[in-house]
Design goal:
By secondary structure, the protein is of the alpha/beta class. It has a domain of 160 residues: Vaccinia Virus protein VP39 (Rossmann fold), CATH 3.40.50. 33% of the residues lie in helices and 23% in strands. Strands 3-2-1-4-5-7-6 form a 7-stranded mixed sheet, with helices on both faces.
């Protein structure tokens, strides 16, 4: 997958989406799955689609990322012009159970909506199918905590997400994490990336006072590093077993007759 220089808010998110998808895709050869129908949820770069089309040439591809607004981003144009990607709206569906693989990343949701998302995904996945996702964990941008004014796209602890997957009907959740360190020498690029993560507001990003604070921060370290905590997860959607009635007898209900 191609990498993009982080020179603006949109370029940063494009680069991050592509980079994390590439890293997450390294796990696919070790997972026994041959999906016939794949759903992309949220933002994804064309390089991600190219990878799946090359490795799963017989699969059908769907996305929930189509926008109905007048403003059309580069991704919207790519989706609308690519006839191989069909439109799908997760929130409009009830138990369709039609996809073999759902691919998400990075998730742009707060903790209280992760559960809702997983519940929706459980309804659209087939039995013995897979969901794979990534998001930015709580250690992200820890070096600039004092400058942040918004929570942005930083999600909860991965152990909490593992529990949510189980509560949402998924089995055998696997969670792992890695740190990526981004190195900065330019004040404006760092500000753009913080804005891309929605950790600072637009007015804050253009404030001379804020720019001076970031500049001073960089001056303290010749090569300033910003941490990205990347959390990866996958889980299986399995068929629910039929409910069984278990009878519990009071203590002493069974007695042994002695002759």
């Amino acid at each position: 997958m191609k990498k993009h220089l982080s020179t603006s808010q949109s370029n940063f998110w494009t680069w991050l989406t592509s980079e994390l998808s590439e890293r997450m895709a390294q796990n696919l050869p070790f997972i026994k799955i041959n999906p016939e129908k794949i759903l992309f949820v949220g933002d994804f770069h064309q390089s991600t689609f190219d990878y799946f089309q090359e490795n799963y040439p017989k699969a059908q591809f769907w996305s929930d990322s189509f926008k109905s607004s007048i403003y059309v981003s580069i991704q919207d144009f790519f989706l609308r012009s690519n006839k191989a990607i069909h439109q799908y709206q997760i929130m409009d569906k009830t138990d369709s159970n039609e996809f073999d693989l759902v691919w998400i990343g990075p998730i742009k949701r707060e903790k209280n909506t992760f559960h809702e998302l997983f519940l929706q995904l459980e309804k659209c996945l087939k039995n013995n199918s897979l969901v794979m996702f990534n998001y930015l964990g709580p250690d992200t941008a820890r070096e600039v905590k004092s400058l942040q004014t918004q929570d942005g796209y930083i999600g909860p602890d991965m152990h909490d997400i593992g529990d949510l997957l189980t509560q949402s009907g998924f089995a055998d959740p696997v969670m792992n994490m890695e740190y990526i360190n981004l190195e900065y020498e330019n004040t404006q690029i760092l500000i753009n990336d913080l804005k891309g993560l929605e950790l600072i507001t637009t007015s804050q990003s253009i404030s001379k006072d804020f720019q001076d604070k970031v500049s001073n921060l960089l001056s303290l370290q010749p090569k300033f590093q910003l941490t990205l905590e990347v959390v990866y997860g996958h889980a299986w959607r399995i068929k629910k077993s039929n409910a069984q009635t278990i009878k519990i007898y009071p203590k002493g209900a069974f007695k042994t007759n002695k002759n």
